[in-house]
Amino acid sequence: MIRDGGPLWYRARQDYIPTAKPTAGETDAGMKIAIQGEPGSFSHEAALKLVPEGEIVPCPLSAEVFRALDEGEVEGAVIPIENSLAGSVLEHFDLLLTHEVRVERETLLRIRHNLIALSGVALDEIERVYSHPVALAQCRRFLAAHPAMKAQAAYDTAGSVKQLVATGDRRAAAIASEAAARHYGAHILASGVEDNPENFTRFFLVRRAAEAKTEPNPNKMSLAFSVKNRPGSLVVALVELAAMGTNLTKIESRPVHGKPWEYSFFVDCQIRSKEEGERAVETLRPHCAMIKELGCYRGAES
Questions:
Q1: 106: which residues sit within 8 A by CB, 6+ positions away?
Q2: Which of 49, 160, 244, 281 has minimal Cβ neighbours within 10 Å of its Cβ?
């Protein structure tokens, strides 16, 4: 935990109150969407991009997002799954596998970091900069060019702005989105402070498996599987996919909890139809100890 003169900066949201269960048959308008993090976060922005008329329900932890979805307190969840610079959000792969959910849609969000302070504060007054560790790492050059600013890790980008405004610290700033500055009434001192402008995060809209809408014309599929314990089984499974002409765009391995040195594999495939996706699953099945279709959906346009 990081403290400065008393305020606690590294902490989760404490004021989340579960909402009532939604009524069956509701449309996207008013749909309750859980996100991990504070209002004004990039997840908040992605959720409104995926469900423009949704009601956002912030949660302190990713596990809480999936619990709220499981128990019907929300109808959907928007989670980051992969960043073009930082890589995959590994915890979310595990949660997708262990919960009865399906990916319904995806979107890409351009991540633009900003140095945010209280109104009237000048750049040369800043001594401390708070943000999520990934955001700080993506702004190394800016921070190196301003050695008087000491980077301090916080639990959330938007949460850093929230705490900044709450404490009224005029010697501190936060790195977060423009939406966070607007939401909390703070001021952007410098825009686009990230090292690399090719910074995108892919987000999934996830719903309970029984309630997920079926995409009539999918072009992408996400799968999780583990292979049988015999030589070359992973290679054989991937060769079978290639023989179908199915293009594998991503593969990620994750350890199987409770089974040391055993792994599950998460793959994204380009498909031409739902039927091709179904054939891919059936082609893999003889080579797999476990296989789960995570979703069949339209890929986000870059």
A1: 81, 202, 203, 204, 205, 220, 297, 298, 299, 300
A2: 244
Q: What is the pLDDT of residues 285-301, one digit of tens each?
A: 998 999 999 999 999 98
- The single residue listed with the structure tokens 């699953």 is 281
259 burial via Cβ count (<10 Å: 0-12, 13-18, 19+): exposed
pLDDT, tens digit, 9 for 90 and up, residues 86-116? 999 999 999 999 999 999 999 999 999 999 9
Q: What does each C-alpha distance from 42 to 49, 101, 110, 113, 264 come to in angstroms?
A: 10, 22, 9, 10, 28
pLDDT tens for each residue of 49-70: 999 999 999 999 999 999 999 9
Residue 40 φ/ψ region, left for φ over 0, alpha for ψ in the -120 to 50 degree band, beta for the rest: left
Task: Please give the single-letter amino acid code of residue 139.
Answer: C
What's the mean per-residue pLDDT of the chain?
89
- Structural domains of the chain, ranges and CATH numbers in brackets: 1-211 (3.40.190.10), 220-297 (3.30.70.260)
Span between the terminal Cα atoms of the chain, in Å: 37
List alpha helices for 4-84, DSSP H: 42-50, 62-70
CB 194, CB 112: distance < 8 Å: yes
Q: Where are the beta strands (DSSP E) in the chain?
A: 32-36, 55-59, 76-83, 87-88, 101-110, 114-117, 128-131, 150-153, 172-176, 187-191, 200-208, 220-227, 247-255, 263-270, 288-297
Q: What is the pLDDT of residue 16?
A: 32
- What's the DSSP call for residue 56? E
At residue 115, what is the residue type?
L
Amino acid at 295: G
Q: The whole model's pTM is what?
A: 0.86
Known catalytic residues?
201, 203
